C-alpha cells in the first residue's frame, strides 16, 4: 500500500515511520517545508514527491496531518490532483479542527471525486517502542481507513458521519489542552502576585496528582504552543454561541503569547512557568 502524508511534522513523521516500519510505502511533499521536515521525512523512510499530481497518483490514501489553520488550504491545493486521480485516492483529514471546518474540507474533496474520512487523532506521535495514538474515524469511507491497522495504527470507528470524529477530538482537547491553558493562567497569576513558591507547595500537598500532571504536561508545551493556537480557535468555533467559547478564545491567545516568548527566548523556558511547574 502507498500512503501520502502531508506534512512531515512531529505527528506526520511519527505516523509515517510506523507505516514504513510495517511495510507500507510512504510518500510526502516538502513544498514550503524547512530542513527540519526534510530530516524528519528522511529518518521516517518517507519519499519526497513535490509535484502534487504525481504525489496523489502514487497514493492509495492521503493523510492530511497539519496545523488546524492549514487544513482547508491543503484540500484546495490538492483538489486538482485528486480530480485527476479520478476517485482512486482516499482522503483522510486528520487535523484538530471543528466539525464545521472538516465539513468544508469534505465538500472540497468530494467535489474533486475522492472519498473522504474524518479523523481525530488522540495521543502523541507513534513511538518505535510500540506506542500509538488512537485514530477515531467517521464517515462512510471509514472502513477503508481501517486497512491501516495491518500497518500498526489503532483505527477506531465513530458513529455519526462526517464531523463526529472531529467533535470527539474537540471535546477531548477541551479538557487536556484547555486544562493546560488553565495551569498556565494559574502560573501567570501566581508570578504576578509573587506567590509562586507558596502555590507550588500547596499544590504538592493538596493536589499531588493534579500537580504531577501539570509538571509532566506544561514543560512539553513550549515548542508546540504555536500549533495549539489554531486548535483552541477551532474549539471556540465549534462551541459557537456557548459562553464557554470565550474561554477557548482566551486559551488561544495564551498559547500565542507562550509561543512568542519561546520564539523570542530560544530554548529558555518562560520564567513564570519554570518557577512552579519544573520538576
What does this structure look like?
The chain is an alpha/beta fold and 279 residues long. The protein has two domains: 2-160, NAD(P)-binding Rossmann-like Domain (Rossmann fold), CATH 3.40.50.720; 167-277. Helices cover 55% and strands 13% of the residues. It has twelve helices and eight strands. The chain has an eight-stranded mixed beta sheet, with helices on both faces.
Topology:
Blueprint: E1 2-6, H1 10-21, E2 25-28, H2 35-44, E3 47-48, H3 52-57, E4 61-64, H4 71-84, E5 90-93, H5 99-111, E6 115-122, E7 134-138, H6 142-145, E8 154-157, H7 164-192, H8 196-206, H9 208-217, H10 225-239, H11 244-265, H12 271-277
Parallel strand pairs: 1-2, 1-4, 2-3, 4-5, 5-6, 7-8
Antiparallel strand pairs: 6-7
Structural features:
Rossmann fold; 12 helices
Compact summary:
This protein has 279 residues and is of the alpha/beta class.
Count of domain modules: 2
SSE string, helices as H and strands as E: EHEHEHEHEHEEHEHHHHHH
Work out the strand percent: 5-15%
Per CATH, what is the topology of the largest domain?
Rossmann fold
CATH class of the largest domain: Alpha Beta
- Which sheet architecture does the biggest sheet show? 8 strands, mixed
Strand order of the largest sheet: 3-2-1-4-5-6-7-8
What portion of residues is helical?
40-55%
3D shape: globular
Mean pLDDT: 94
CATH architecture of the largest domain: 3-Layer(aba) Sandwich
**Are there runs of 5+ residues with pLDDT below 50, and where?**
none
Helical/strand content category: alpha/beta
- The DSSP helix count reads 12
Q: Over the alpha carbons, how many angstroms does the gyration radius reach? A: 20 Å
Amino acid at each position: 500500500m502507498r500512503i501520502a502524508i502531508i506534512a512531515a511534522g512531529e505527528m506526520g513523521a511519527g505516523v509515517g515511520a510506523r507505516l514504513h516500519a510495517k511495510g507500507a510505502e510512504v510518500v510526502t511533499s516538502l513544498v514550503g517545508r524547512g530542513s527540519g521536515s526534510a530530516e524528519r521525512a528522511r529518518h521516517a523512510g518517507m519519499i519526497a514527491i513535490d509535484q502534487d499530481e504525481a504525489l496523489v497518483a502514487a497514493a492509495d490514501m492521503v493523510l492530511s496531518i497539519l496545523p488546524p489553520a492549514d487544513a482547508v488550504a491543503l484540500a484546495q491545493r490538492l483538489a486538482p490532483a485528486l480530480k485527476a486521480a479520478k476517485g482512486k485516492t482516499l482522503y483522510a483529514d486528520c487535523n484538530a479542527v471543528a466539525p464545521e471546518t472538516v465539513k468544508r474540507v469534505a465538500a472540497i474533496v468530494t467535489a474533486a471525486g475522492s472519498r473522504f474520512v474524518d479523523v481525530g487523532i488522540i495521543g502523541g506521535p507513534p513511538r518505535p517502542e510500540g506506542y500509538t495514538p488512537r485514530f477515531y474515524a467517521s464517515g462512510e469511507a471509514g472502513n477503508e481507513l481501517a486497512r491501516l491497522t495491518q500497518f500498526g495504527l489503532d483505527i477506531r470507528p465513530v458513529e455519526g458521519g462526517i464531523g463526529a470524529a472531529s467533535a470527539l477530538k474537540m471535546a477531548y482537547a477541551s479538557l487536556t489542552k484547555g486544562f493546560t491553558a488553565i495551569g498556565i493562567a494559574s502560573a501567570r497569576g501566581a508570578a504576578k502576585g509573587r506567590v509562586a513558591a507558596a502555590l507550588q507547595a500547596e499544590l504538592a500537598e493538596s493536589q499531588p496528582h493534579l500537580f504531577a500532571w501539570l509538571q509532566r504536561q506544561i514543560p512539553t508545551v513550549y515548542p508546540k504552543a504555536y500549533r495549539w493556537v489554531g486548535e483552541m480557535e477551532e474549539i471556540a468555533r465549534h462551541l459557537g454561541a456557548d459562553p464557554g467559547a470565550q474561554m477557548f478564545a482566551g486559551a488561544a491567545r495564551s498559547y500565542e503569547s507562550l509561543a512568542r516568548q519561546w520564539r523570542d527566548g530560544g530554548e529558555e523556558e518562560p520564567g513564570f512557568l519554570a518557577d512552579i511547574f519544573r520538576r
